[in-house]
Automatic annotation (TrEMBL):
Record pathway: Porphyrin-containing compound metabolism; protoporphyrin-IX biosynthesis; 5-aminolevulinate from L-glutamyl-tRNA(Glu): step 2/2
Protein name: glutamate-1-semialdehyde 2,1-aminomutase
Superkingdom as given in the UniProt entry: Eukaryota
KW Isomerase (keyword) present: yes
InterPro entries for this protein: 4pyrrol_synth_GluAld_NH2Trfase (IPR004639), Aminotrans_3 (IPR005814), PyrdxlP-dep_Trfase (IPR015424), PyrdxlP-dep_Trfase_major (IPR015421), PyrdxlP-dep_Trfase_small (IPR015422)
Top EC class, one word: isomerase
Enzyme Commission (EC) number: 5.4.3.8
Keywords: Isomerase, Porphyrin biosynthesis, Pyridoxal phosphate
Family affiliation: Belongs to the class-III pyridoxal-phosphate-dependent aminotransferase family. HemL subfamily.
Pfam families for the chain: Aminotran_3
Cofactor: pyridoxal 5'-phosphate
Catalytic activity: (S)-4-amino-5-oxopentanoate = 5-aminolevulinate
Length: 461
């Protein structure tokens, strides 16, 4: 066993490249490889005096797994390289957009060509029509689409639209679902029985979140009760059709169909927040995969191919409320800029080629199956799942059907697993409650190397 571990470690190219301190001696081989983070630590330390908490988005700070974050230098394919020269197999993919692999040659070439013609017009361009057509053709619920520059913007605009269209104020969201950081969505998630929302962050007026009702994911009965208790007041229901922000939690068909039925019955808008799932779960997003069609859809991440893009779209009747077609105001200086449209168009074009989603499904399913089996064989309580290129594992018996159940998992063990995988050259999202992502660039060899790394880590956590 020891000799097998030695050969695996010394043969792992990601351990040998650019990190001489990780070329461990035969004697030291059973100790965890030491990760050289000297430059990462120096840069992050300086960042703490320049940026709040040293980052521009909180999860990047590694607070929930401990240890210092890795500072990236470059990315390519499914690999990322840090400022100390360590290379990792990456399962974060820039939090979703890098579905074709980082710095994909075709996407890069398209961006460079467009750059010569200008990055931002602030005026209509034909590229907006091209991307809009691709979205409308692929996403069943979308007749008309408005581009924004982030998922947050898409979701807060969709929320305003739900309210404008129905002339009602209240909305229902689910515990553990994240829809960006607009005030109305920052609600302290109550567990168990559905509760009235309280602000989750200072600075959010209680009056704003008083209109946000919460229910447990995969529990349509709670939603029906909320509609009963708030007759004629609920504008709509918003959800991640597959949860990624509470860890990977798939919906039951009964839940999705139940939401569809109750919204139709109550004259409320059903909004799928597909910022994470759009063009990742399938060519027509989660709504096509499950065959449940919402009234409104929010998009982001993949749709911008690595540049900042969000979008919301839906039925013509609802979207015709949006300014200047209608009275609901929403705008954006960089919305629909030609550079971001170009990256989105090329990314969707690549994803439209035969075999793309089959590849994502195959490598991801294999990854989760083998990692969970290895964890269980090493005596850890583990469960996990995947759909296409989105996945998650929990350190608990499972199955996990809601955020409340996800919270049963052993987060301290996840933190040790996360650090161990970093030391082995695998970059995972730094939280138990984040989904993982694969890309078209992940090969069977990458999966094998990841599973072997996980086996070594399971043996020592
Ligand atoms: C489901 C979902 N909605 C909305 C957002 C917000 O998107 P952005 O970070 O682009 O503002 C995210 C971000 O992770 C998300 O996962």
């Amino acid at each position: 066993m020891a000799s097998m571990m030695l050969s695996q470690k010394t043969c792992n190219p990601s351990l040998l490249r650019g990190n001489s301190r990780r070329q461990v001696s035969v004697k030291a081989v059973q100790a965890p490889p030491k990760l050289n983070q000297v430059n990462s630590e120096r840069i992050f330390s300086e960042a703490q005096s320049l940026l709040p908490g040293g980052v521009n988005s909180p999860v990047r700070a590694f607070r929930s797994v401990g240890g210092k974050p890795i500072v990236f230098d470059s990315v390519k394919g499914c690999k990322v390289t840090d400022v100390d020269g360590n290379t990792y197999i990456d399962y974060v993919g820039s939090w979703g957009p890098a579905i074709c692999g980082h710095a994909n040659d075709e996407v890069n070439a398209a961006i460079v060509a467009q750059l010569q013609k200008g990055a931002s017009f602030g005026a209509p361009c034909e590229l907006e029509n091209t991307l809009a057509r691709m979205v409308i053709e692929r996403v069943p619920s979308v007749d008309i689409v408005r581009f924004t520059s982030s998922g947050t913007e898409a979701c807060l605009s969709a929320l305003r639209l739900m309210r404008a269209y129905t002339k009602r104020d209240k909305i229902i969201k689910f515990v553990g679902c994240y829809h960006g950081h607009a005030d109305s969505f920052l609600v302290k998630a109550g567990s168990g029985v559905a509760t009235l929302g309280l602000p989750d962050s200072p600075g959010v007026p209680a009056g704003t979140t008083a209109h946000t009702l919460t229910a447990s994911y995969n529990n349509v009965e709670e939603v029906k009760q909320l509609f009963e208790q708030n007759k004629g007041q609920i504008a709509g229901v918003i959800l991640e059709p597959v949860v990624g922000n509470g860890g990977f939690i798939p919906p039951s068909m009964e839940f999705l169909q139940g939401l569809r039925d109750v919204c139709t019955q109550e004259g409320a808008v059903l909004c799928f927040d597909e910022v994470m799932t759009c063009f990742r779960i399938s060519k027509g997003c989660a709504q096509e995969y499950f065959g449940v069609i919402p009234d409104l859809t929010c998009m982001g991440k993949v749709i911008g191919g690595g540049l900042p893009v969000g979008a919301y779209g839906g039925k013509k009747e609802i979207m015709s409320m949006v300014s200047p077609a209608g009275p609901m105001y929403q705008a954006g200086t960089l919305s629909g800029n030609p550079l971001a449209m170009t990256a989105g168009i090329k990314t969707l074009e690549i994803l439209g080629r035969p075999g793309a989603y089959e590849h994502l499904q195959r490598v991801t399913e294999r990854l989760v199956k083998e990692v969970v089996a290895a964890g269980q064989a090493a005596g850890h309580e583990m469960c996990g799942g995947s759909i296409s290129g989105m996945f998650g594992v929990f350190f608990c018996k499972g199955p996990v059907r809601s955020f409340e159940e996800a919270q049963q998992s052993d987060t301290a063990k996840f933190a040790r697993f996360h650090r161990g995988m970093l030391e082995e050259g695998v970059y995972l999202a730094p939280s138990q409650f984040e989904a993982g992502f694969t890309s078209l660039a992940h090969t069977d060899e990458d999966i094998t190397n990841t599973v072997e790394a996980a086996k070594r880590v399971f043996a020592r956590i």
